[in-house]
């Protein structure tokens, strides 16, 4: 950087550069005007800086990509010796970045440990950036800081952190964030009151009685998101035509209903005013049968908003699906998280001039689609962070012509997320997160608490990885975590790891601290091996480290097996798409353990979630409940419902500026066999319409095919019922991938040699720089491939090849047979523990959905399998939950005789009946 201490020095520097660039020559005359000075630099490989009592600004160009730079000063005569520090020279007016012809597109993934920024800059080139998500000593908000740094780098100007950023050069910002997830995990959401139909105040607290660990003797009580409960005087039941019943009304599903009691708004008003006086401003309204009769909830919501509640979540709007318990939890989560999200978004907008008024701001939702701010709610944001990665690998790894399905493996600092893509996104519509069951469309992402920052423990003779994490502000002092194990094994090079730790954000990883931390664990292990019940050989520090890596790998294989084998898929038939900051270090080992032969690692694998946000589309969904049978006589009605929802989706996307040519829709039906609770959301895009199907496609064939694949049997004698009708509209808006030139000829250059520890000991390992590799280069393992955001380990017996797009594709060799002896080995015990749990993990997903007893399908109490045939499916005639003799009706025989489950509880039933706690199964939601 040149140090210019006088006006004359500045003039001479510009004249020198003008000899290299004709455009600059025309600007030399600006020096004479003693006015605002603007410099535009187009040549490559130069740098120009200005200092006066310290750094004022620096302007640099990339050696590979052209840049446009603009630096703005106050009048030039002030750039003289002896002036105050650079702050006094900065113009207080906004600083812009060049001409109006190009603007920036930002895609930001704010994870639990790191925030990744992917920026498409004017001219089409790309900049990427990784920074800590939490660094309060240096900046308040990581996404804003990431945008500021890229604008500063691209513009060659100093942008103070205490001033709002100019948005004139920002076209769009797309973000995936873990704000909602963290608020749910840490219970840091809004104060919420639950409004529920009278008589059901403890409904959500009782829930389904499902336990996370069925055999845990210390069962934790569920922690509710709401703070207070108000019972609403209202009642809607299914119409049964009994004597004395009122006039029936038709609900949205087509079912006949009886309004036994309208909403008493007068009595409710005083209760709501009491909530306001106690400081509660967010409500969740959950009324019986609101999925089909929403009028009562709408009346309550209107009154609450008139009284001044800032957020009101209606269960009929949050997710209009049957089953009040998950629907109620979803409404509570929405009321609990949405105000938190809105506060974060408002704080983020305050970091920009005009609060991003003229910038398109979109947020990733849990279903893998982008949505504007007004559609980004708490119940749809829990998987906002990992959803971007699914979109990223689906767009960059899956090949339509080959048809080979892909397993996404996203290993971050806190956890690892796995998912599957085979040409379409796989969604679930009921899932539990942090003890809360959410009934909302989410990408089917399985998470395990093992990541690069997961801490390592030795407990009761077993190696344990996680679930504790070192957090997002960890270093450089290490905390006995997976990253430490890889560092001790030589699989991470501190010189290539981002130097972003410590108070100054400039310290690298510390191998000495890692060895010291793991030595403490090794001491515990060897003490157990020496003094335990079966003395065994001591383990070296490296053997302890590689043992923890093996256990972590096995822990991360479990959700992959649950996602494939438990769904009728062969994991070995998949490609493993590995990404996340820590994913490349474990890719080969994970693939080998699962029998996969191919690993695909994108060139931006360390930031693929951010890239996925750039490639994602805007999505609008419309869904409504239904109670029709899937039969020829109802196909016309189903087509009409689908057409109406499709029109809603198209209109909503057109309102956001999408022309019809950029909008596509896909129709779904939520189908189940009558008498069962297991409904599958199926699309018919692979099953064209026939003479015996709706015009939208043969949903029946799609349902039977999937049911058979997942559960291994079908029930052809039972009719199929439609629970919900859904249409997903997509506004195609993803940014185009940059073109990557083909490689230059010549062998790959080895940057350095290092020592890495594998099962057989240390091996000489070459290190390659990803930026220097080209199309067609082949690298034999073992080797390390390094870039600024990730490290890829190619294990012995594997071969890596650079694809035409600059990605890494690894052919995985067969794993050497493992010899298990009789001697005590805590590593093998830990691995087997995970494999035994995988067996249960594969079996239970088959058992629960196909069970016909609510005590099994809802509560998950599969140890209470009845001995006699019984059926408590939907639509079956059932006795009251407690009969007049006080018998339990959790599971009655078909002839209505003795209960099959927990007969001793009958005394409780008698007590409840004596106190009039009796209800009819036909009246419940």
TrEMBL record:
Residue ranges of domain Hydantoinase A/oxoprolinase in the record: 327-621
Speriolin N-terminal domain segment(s): 1-58
Entry keywords, A to Z: Coiled coil
GO cellular component, one term: cytosol
Chain ranges of the Acetophenone carboxylase-like C-terminal domain: 637-801
Molecular function GO terms recorded: 5-oxoprolinase (ATP-hydrolyzing) activity
Source domain of life: Eukaryota
GO biological process, one term: glutathione metabolic process
Residues covered by the Hydantoinase/oxoprolinase N-terminal domain: 106-307
InterPro entries: ACX-like_C, Hydant_A_N, Hydantoinase_A, Oxoprolinase-like, Speriolin_N
Segments forming a coiled coil: 7-37
Protein name per its UniProtKB record: 5-oxoprolinase
């Amino acid at each position: 950087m040149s140090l210019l201490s006088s006006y004359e020095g500045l003039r001479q520097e510009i004249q020198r550069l003008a000899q290299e660039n004709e455009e600059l020559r025309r600007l030399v005359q600006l020096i004479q005007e003693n006015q605002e000075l603007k410099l535009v630099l187009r040549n490559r490989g130069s740098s120009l800086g200005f200092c006066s009592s310290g750094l004022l600004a620096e302007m640099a160009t990339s050696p590979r990509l052209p840049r446009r730079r603009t630096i703005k000063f106050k009048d030039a005569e002030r750039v003289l010796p002896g002036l105050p520090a650079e702050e006094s020279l900065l113009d207080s007016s906004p600083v812009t970045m060049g001409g109006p012809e190009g603007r920036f597109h930002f895609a930001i993934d704010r994870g639990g440990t790191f925030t990744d920024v992917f920026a498409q800059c004017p001219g089409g080139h790309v900049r990427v950036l990784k920074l800590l998500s939490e660094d309060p000593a240096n900046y308040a908000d990581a996404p804003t800081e990431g945008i500021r740094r890229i604008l500063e780098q691209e513009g060659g100007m100093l942008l103070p952190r205490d001033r709002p950023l100019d948005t004139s050069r920002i076209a769009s910002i797309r973000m995936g964030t873990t704000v909602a997830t963290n608020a749910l995990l840490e219970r840091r959401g809004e104060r919420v009151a639950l409004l529920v139909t009278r008589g059901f105040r403890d409904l959500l607290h009782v829930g389904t009685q499902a336990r996370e660990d069925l055999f845990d003797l210390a069962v934790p009580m569920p922690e509710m998101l709401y703070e207070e409960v108000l019972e609403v005087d209202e009642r809607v039941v299914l119409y049964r035509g009994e004597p004395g019943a009122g006039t029936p009304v038709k609900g949205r599903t087509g079912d006949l209903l009886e309004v036994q009691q309208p909403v008493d708004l007068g009595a409710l008003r005083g209760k709501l005013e009491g909530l306001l006086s106690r400081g509660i401003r967010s409500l969740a309204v959950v009324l019986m049968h609101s999925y089909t009769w929403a009028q009562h909830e709408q009346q309550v919501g209107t009154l609450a908003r008139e009284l001044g509640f800032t957020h009101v979540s209606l269960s009929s709007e949050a997710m209009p699906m049957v089953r009040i318990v998950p629907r109620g939890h979803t409404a509570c989560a929405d009321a609990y998280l949405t105000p938190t999200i809105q506060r974060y978004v408002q704080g983020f907008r305050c970091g920009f001039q005009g609060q991003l008024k003229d910038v398109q701001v979109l947020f990733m939702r849990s279903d893998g689609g982008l949505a504007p701010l007004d559609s980004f709610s708490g119940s749809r944001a829990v998987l906002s962070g990992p959803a971007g990665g699914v979109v990223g690998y689906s767009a960059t790894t899956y090949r339509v012509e080959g048809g080979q399905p892909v397993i996404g493996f996203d290993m971050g600092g806190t956890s690892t997320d796995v998912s599957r893509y085979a040409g379409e996104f796989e969604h679930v519509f009921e899932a539990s997160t942090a003890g809360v069951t959410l009934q909302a469309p989410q990408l089917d992402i399985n998470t395990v608490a093992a990541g690069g920052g997961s801490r390592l423990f030795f407990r009761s003779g077993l190696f344990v990885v996680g679930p504790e994490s070192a957090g997002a502000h960890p270093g450089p002092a290490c905390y006995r975590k997976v990253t430490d194990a890889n560092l001790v094994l030589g699989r991470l090079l501190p010189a290539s790891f981002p130097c972003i730790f410590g108070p100054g954000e400039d310290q690298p990883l510390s191998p000495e601290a890692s060895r010291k931390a793991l030595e403490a664990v090794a001491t515990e292990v060897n003490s157990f091996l020496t003094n335990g019940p079966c003395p065994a050989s001591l383990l070296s520090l490296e053997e302890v480290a590689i043992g923890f890596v093996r256990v972590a790998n096995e822990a991360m294989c479990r959700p992959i097996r649950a996602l494939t084998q438990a769904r009728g898929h062969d994991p070995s038939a998949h490609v493993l798409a590995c990404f996340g900051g820590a994913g490349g270090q474990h890719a080969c080992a994970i693939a080998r353990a699962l029998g996969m032969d191919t690993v695909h690692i994108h060139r931006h694998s360390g930031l693929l979630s951010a890239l996925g946000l750039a490639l994602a589309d805007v999505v609008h969904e419309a869904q409504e409940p239904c109670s029709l049978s899937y039969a020829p006589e109802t196909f016309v009605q189903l087509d009409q419902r689908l057409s109406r929802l499709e029109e809603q989706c198209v209109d909503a996307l057109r309102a956001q500026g999408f022309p019809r040519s950029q909008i596509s829709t896909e129709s779904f039906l939520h189908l189940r066999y009558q008498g069962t609770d297991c409904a599958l959301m199926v699309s018919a895009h692979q099953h064209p319409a026939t003479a015996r199907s709706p015009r939208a496609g043969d949903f029946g064939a799609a349902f039977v095919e999937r049911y058979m694949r997942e559960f291994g049997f079908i029930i052809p004698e039972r009719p199929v019922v439609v629970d919900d009708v859904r249409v997903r509209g997509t506004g195609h808006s993803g940014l185009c991938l940059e073109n990557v030139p083909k490689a230059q000829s010549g062998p790959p250059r080895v940057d350095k040699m290092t020592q890495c520890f594998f099962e057989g000991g240390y091996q000489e390992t070459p290190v390659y720089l990803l930026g220097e590799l080209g199309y067609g280069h082949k690298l034999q393992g073992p080797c390390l491939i390094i870039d600024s955001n990730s490290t890829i380990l190619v294990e012995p017996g594997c071969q890596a090849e650079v694809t035409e797009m600059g990605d890494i594709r690894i052919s995985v060799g067969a794993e050497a047979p493992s010899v298990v002896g009789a001697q005590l080995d805590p590593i093998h015990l830990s691995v087997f523990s995970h494999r035994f749990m995988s067996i249960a993990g594969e079996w239970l997903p088959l058992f629960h959905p196909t069970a016909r007893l609510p005590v099994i399908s809802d509560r998950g109490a599969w140890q209470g399998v009845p001995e006699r045939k019984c059926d408590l499916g939907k639509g079956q005639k059932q006795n009251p939950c407690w009969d007049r003799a006080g018998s339990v009706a959790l599971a009655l025989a078909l002839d209505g005789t003795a209960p099959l489950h927990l007969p001793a509880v009958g005394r409780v039933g008698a007590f409840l009946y004596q106190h009039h706690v009796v209800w009819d199964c036909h009246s419940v939601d």
